[in-house]
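Justification of computing resources. Each target in the renewal requires a structure prediction run like the one illustrated here; the chain below, 260 residues long, is used simply to show the kind of job we budget for.
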Amino acid sequence: MFTSNPFAELSASLPPAVMQAYVVVMIVLVAAGTLFDVVHKGSARYFFDNWRKSKSKGPQVGGGELVSIAVQTAVVDVLASGEFCNARRRVAHLLTMYGFVLHVISTVVMVFRYATPATPGPDVWPVLWWIGGLMILVGGYWFWFFIRVDVAAEGSSPFRLMRADLFVLSLLASVTLGLIWAYAQTRGSSWSHAWFALYVIATTVLFGSVPWSKFAHMFFKPAAAFEKRVSYANGTRSNLPAAADKPEQFGSARTAPRHY
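Resulting structure tokens:
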């Protein structure tokens, strides 16, 4: 099951060209949705305005130091999710992030390179597809039911829904339904086509709802983290005191703090 390419098996009823066209459409939706989000919310203009103000208020940061800051941003803030103070939330985020990368890359490779049984590929791609999907489910459901601030700290129901939850819910729905579909297909279940239809719907919502979800944040956060490190380097820090970035810890000897 874990070494079987589900998209190659699907080619018996759905032409590879259709699958490839769908993937291209999803990529276009993400790009268009992100651009719309940037223009609509003014994120890029805010970033560059803040960047110019930071440069005018403090001493100039040299090119070598900028490169060092960029490397630190990539390693600490992007690859290691260093912005999360809470270890559980960081682990859940890393599981979801790297699982998403593995899942998407392996999907693209299998759809575009090994989309039919006539072009069998190495077993590593289906394995990575399953591993990535399971990582998303572990990190995503762990976050949803046990780490979300309104659940862990405020006592709200884990089934309380808000528009901000659109990204994580559509991601979990897409991956959950995708893995169920792949399993049902390998078992020859008569429900496999129904599971696949639900999988496509959830995936379309995930990539088509970028302007209304937090999907585009993955593109904004590295830029914001980089600007923040530069403001530290030139001493401006948006005129905030040094303690502003460290949350105050509440709790007692009997109760650990659960806020974020």
